[in-house]
Amino acid sequence: MIIKTKPEPGYADGALLLEAAHIHERLGEWDQALRAAEKALAIYRDNDDQRSTAVTQGQIADILQACGEFDQALALHEWRLPVAQKLGDIEPIAVTRFKIARICLQRGNQGTDDMQRIHEELAASLASFRKLGRQDGIGHVGVLLARVLAMRGQPDEALAVLDQAAAAFDKRGDTQGADQARRSRDRIRADR
């Protein structure tokens, strides 16, 4: 006689739930995506897995951001950042800083302090992606940083960053990204 027992939720269950959340996100099913990610988060918290908890918090923040819940999304990323720093994970630090800056831009309210914070987050993110040699990060962060620099009245710095972003996209063979960087560069030059 075989007795079947319900397995304890574990990492495989968390990974499956996160994959389900990704699928729901791609389909625009935000409530289902959020529920799946929150279930995965509970599993990782129960297992005291800080890294997986932080990654899952990031996915939940992305879902909340897509739903316009900027303050909640920002709070989750702000929670994640010191965890990634404590773990010494350079790539998650860079990604989190980029996402914090994007949310701050999306929220509006770009006073002097906000713009300074956005600039600092993007500059730190770009430095980390350069250290890692991640051309995609250099390109994407560079385009956004250049936009912020232009908004702050620093067109020369913005142009230099856009040149680096275009070169990074070229190295990846990302013609669309390189074209975007060059169009941004042309707009800044035209506005001077």
Description:
With 192 residues, the chain is an all-alpha fold. The protein is 83% helix and 0% strand. The chain contains nine helices and no strands. The longest helix has 21 residues, at 112-132. Residues 1-8 have low confidence and may be disordered.
Annotation field: number of helices = 9
Helix content class: over 70%
Please give the largest β-sheet: none
Radius of gyration: 19 Å
Distance between the termini: 81 Å
Instruction: Report the principal-axis shape.
Output: elongated
Strand content: under 5%
N-to-C series of helices and strands:
HHHHHHHHH
Q: Which class of secondary structure composition applies to the elements?
A: mainly alpha
DSSP strand count? 0
Would you tell me the overall average pLDDT?
Answer: 91
Q: What low-confidence regions span 5 or more consecutive residues with pLDDT below 50?
A: 1-8
